[in-house]
Amino acid sequence: MSEARLTGPVRIVGVGLLGASIGLGLRAKGVEVILADASPTHLAIAADYGAGRPAAPGDVPQLVVVCVPPDVTADVVASELAANPTAIVTDVASVKLAIYDDLVARGADLSRYLGTHPMAGRELGGPMSGRADLFVGRPWVVAAHEGISYRDASVIDDLILDLGATLVELTPEQHDRAVALVSHVPQVVSTLMARRLIDAPHASVNLAGQGIRDVTRVAASDPELWVQILGQNSAPVIEILRGYRDDLDRFIDALVDLEAPGARRRIAEELFGGNTGVERLPGKHGVDRRYASLIVMVDDRPGQLARLFNDVGDAGVNLEDLRLEHSPGAQVGLAEIFVLPEVQERLTDELAARGWRIAG
Amino acid sequence: MSEARLTGPVRIVGVGLLGASIGLGLRAKGVEVILADASPTHLAIAADYGAGRPAAPGDVPQLVVVCVPPDVTADVVASELAANPTAIVTDVASVKLAIYDDLVARGADLSRYLGTHPMAGRELGGPMSGRADLFVGRPWVVAAHEGISYRDASVIDDLILDLGATLVELTPEQHDRAVALVSHVPQVVSTLMARRLIDAPHASVNLAGQGIRDVTRVAASDPELWVQILGQNSAPVIEILRGYRDDLDRFIDALVDLEAPGARRRIAEELFGGNTGVERLPGKHGVDRRYASLIVMVDDRPGQLARLFNDVGDAGVNLEDLRLEHSPGAQVGLAEIFVLPEVQERLTDELAARGWRIAG
After folding, report:
1. Which residues numbered 314-333 in B keep a CB inside 8 Å of some CB on A?
2. Structural domain boundaries enclosing B330
3. Residue A27: which H helix or E strand, with range?
4. With an 8 Å Cβ cutoff, are B215 and A285 in contact?
């Protein structure tokens, strides 16, 4: 493992999922980590867990990372700036402009503050769900402003690089608009879809397939946290939701008056637009044409997937992605394997030769 | 493999994904399958592919399965009823009431017709994407009506059971309302979310995580097909979309006037409602509390997953589900393994003992 760029000590205020994960990641790099939390219990858990040591009088941190809920972040950042006059202070809240404006209004020392937002998380919270690798390979946004010097800001770069994340520089406005689109609005859209299920007959929900499961997965997220996030980023969220609502109204109107000239064409255009939008997403889980897939039937018994991936490994093929499909009650599951197109045919032959039922 | 219940021959009209999959599944059971398709090319591919043989003069099918697009299904069902006076005729279109009403209006012989809908599919279409196991363990809805005798209807049961699916009996109305909720409305909601991405800056879409990928996955589906499905099931889809739109309006209003008394509480209640809705979904991919998960770091190299699942298998543990997480550019991926809660601790220890980095 490469040496840490941070000299430390790093003080982490708030040891939930993100705070604990930052502590674990920095400790793994040998950086001294000081922990603080309003909850003595969380603090003790995080310390026992190896995320750092409790704060002590006389601590002089190089960097303070504020990892508290969005609605108290500005408060805590301001008090940490005051309490640690030589430290650079950052936060990891998922909204940036409201916090920045709040700090400006308070007359906080912005020459030592630079807000950030790591694009990483889990549906779980709390120190016990912390992971040293939570940020590995993930974008970590730095909400750039003019008030801090390049040299002082470099400490934030060090934090991000030490944790294995990818630094992305945006203005607070750009950041908030971006997360409104790719995170906050999808949360609302998913939540409202899931609400439709509340009073549905069993016969209906029992027909649910992977489609609605995917659309509603994030609707399981923590309401308390999301009220704060949406509340602090309401302007761009409202703007995007209104555009969504206008599309929805047009869609409903076209469905209501299907025989009107052009109604079906309007619906088709909306659907084609959806295709186009999905294709803009990076990474493996969008409509990714970089990989070919084959579907293998796997008995629902211990070791079967092991045997499958053994055979894939023996074939010298790297699994790029995988989707498991298993219907309750069925004795067989389907493993959809994503590989580079050039190896698909060979892998299909090799697996078939080893007795696997290739279903597609 | 158990013997086929159908005596056959079974005539399949339309050899796309569903038609070809039914042919492959029945051939695997030794049932004689006769194929017909408007496209000679598709027909030849499906026959070469092993889904059955092309139709010939004098064929007398026991059962005709119509697998053509929804907007021509009633046409084809009517002509198949006329052309095969001794056969039971079914279809697999994803809407049922419009087709049934159309057949009633045509005065078709409903004593030999029973519509069905297998809840199975893939984003891909065409005979080459057919899979003999496509229906294994999946619900297959029979749209019951009074016009057909129990004895004649049993041929449809045989078809469904021969293909390994689970028979679900609903009225055409119940079916259409159910799929409007769990399939058609989620398609619209996902499509409209994806449309928001079309003109988004790169900097924004590059921050996309798993959340928006899941919400928009089905937006990649075939627009031509969906125009027909939504057009033929517009009434229940409109009703549900209007309920969704009313929720959305309330949500936007609450965000616009955040300082109004109770505004934040209303938002929190919407979000809690989403939690409740997701919990109603069956199966593994909802918020499923039947399984515990652990996250293992896996190097992005051939054979690594094989080694992991080997070790899981050696531990005698059955993998209930799996989610792979891999950030573009990262040298390490995360495998989230879902197992029965009682084995989680033991598996964690065993994997750690074998040198795996357990991240959570």
Report:
1. 314, 316-322, 324, 326-332
2. 287-358
3. helix A17-28
4. no
Question: Is residue A252 less than 8 Å (CB to CB) from chain B?
Answer: yes
> Under an 8 A CB cutoff, do A216 and B359 touch?
no
CATH number of the CATH domain containing A300: 3.30.70.260
- Regarding whether B158 and B19 lie in a shared domain, the answer is yes
State how far residue B34 is from chain A, nearest Cα, in angstroms: 21
| Residue A309 falls inside a structural domain | yes
Confidence (pLDDT) at B258: 92
d(Cα A36, Cα B57) in Å, to the nearest integer? 83
Residues of chain B found within 8 Å of residue A284, distances taken between Cβ atoms: 326, 328
**Along the 360 residues of chain B, how does pLDDT read in single tens digits?**
578 999 989 999 999 999 999 999 999 999 999 999 999 998 998 998 899 999 999 999 999 999 999 999 999 999 999 999 999 999 999 999 999 999 999 999 999 999 999 998 765 567 777 888 888 888 999 999 999 999 999 999 999 999 999 999 999 999 999 999 999 999 999 999 999 999 999 989 999 988 999 999 999 988 998 999 999 999 999 999 999 999 999 999 999 999 999 999 999 999 999 999 999 988 644 334 457 888 888 776 767 777 888 888 888 887 777 777 654 444 556 788 888 888 888 999 999 899 888 876
Q: Of the candidates B177, B271, B303, which has its C-beta nearest A191's C-beta?
A: B271
Find the CATH number of the domain harbouring A150: 3.40.50.720
DSSP A356: -
Q: Check B223 against A282: CB less than 8 A apart.
A: no
B14: left (phi over 0), alpha (psi -120 to 50) or beta: left
A14: three-class secondary structure by DSSP: coil
Return the closest-CA partner of residue B326 out of B352, B303, B298: B298
Encoding tokens for residue B216? 């928009």
Q: Is A27 domain-assigned?
A: yes
Residue A336 has a CB neighbour count (10 Å cut-off) of 16
Taking the C-alpha atoms of residue B158 and residue A174, their distance in angstroms, rounded to an integer, is 59
**Where do the DSSP E strands lie in chain B?**
10-13, 33-36, 53-54, 63-66, 88-91, 116-118, 139-143, 166-170, 292-299, 321-326, 332-339, 357-358
CA distance, residue A279 to nearest chain B CA (Å): 8
Tell me: do B93 and B26 sit in the same domain.
yes
Cβ within 8 Å, pair A138-B327: yes
Tell me the CATH number at B196: 1.10.3660.10
A112 and A183 in a single domain? The answer is: no
Q: Is residue B5 part of a domain?
A: no
Write out residues 46-65 of A within 8 Å (CB-CB) of B.
none
Supply the pLDDT for residue A330: 45
